[in-house]
């Protein structure tokens, strides 16, 4: 029991909820066993199940790893700037727009492990 408490305390280091209408976004900082920090961004939506005649929360989660923080932050800044100004970032039309990049197997393993831990 004590080890599980330590794991849970170490795993989630910081959390910031953002309420947005019927959705809530959670920005959580967590750590792996090796004390590598990463971010999970969870979208939570309250839904009603007619079959079970009760409310439940539908959740969608992404994992953002330390080596990708800067790329993610830059893409978010460029996206927000485009919304505000309508201006495309420099080099935008020169970049390939492929979303079929191969996944890093190690990251998949970590994500699967954390998904399994959350179910317990």
Tag the structure with descriptive keywords.
4-stranded antiparallel β-sheet; 120 residues; 3 helices; alpha+beta; Nuclear Transport Factor 2, Chain: A
Quick check: average pLDDT? 82
Largest sheet strand order: 1-2-3-4
Annotated CATH architecture: Roll
Which structural class fits the helix and strand makeup? Answer: alpha+beta
Through-space gap between termini = 13 Å
Percent helix, as a range, is: 25-40%
SSE string: HEEEEHH
Contiguous uncertain segments of 5+ residues? 5-9
- CATH classification class: Alpha Beta
Task: Note the total helix count.
Answer: 3
Strand content: 35-45%
CATH topology tier name = Nuclear Transport Factor 2, Chain: A
Shape: extended
Structural domains: how many: 1
- Radius of gyration, Cα only, in angstroms? 18 Å
Total number of beta strands = 4
Largest sheet: 4 strands, antiparallel
Question: How would you describe this structure to a colleague?
Answer:
By secondary structure, the protein is of the alpha+beta class. The chain has one domain: Roll (Nuclear Transport Factor 2, Chain: A), CATH 3.10.450.700. Helices cover 35% and strands 36% of the residues. The chain has 3 helices and 4 strands; from the N terminus they run H-E-E-E-E-H-H. It has helices spanning 2-11, 69-85, 105-119; strands at residues 12-20, 23-31, 37-49, 54-65. It has a 4-stranded antiparallel beta sheet.
């Amino acid at each position: 029991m004590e080890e599980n408490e330590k794991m849970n305390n170490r795993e989630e280091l910081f959390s910031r909820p953002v309420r947005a209408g019927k959705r809530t976004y959670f920005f959580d900082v967590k750590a792996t066993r090796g004390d590598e920090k990463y971010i999970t961004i969870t979208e939570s939506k309250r839904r009603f199940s007619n079959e079970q005649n009760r409310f439940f929360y539908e959740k969608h989660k992404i994992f953002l790893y330390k080596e990708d923080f800067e790329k993610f932050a830059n893409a978010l800044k460029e996206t927000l700037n485009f919304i505000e100004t309508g201006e495309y970032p420099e080099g935008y039309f020169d970049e390939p727009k492929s979303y079929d990049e191969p996944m890093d197997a190690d990251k998949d393993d970590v994500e699967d492990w954390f998904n399994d831990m959350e179910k317990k």
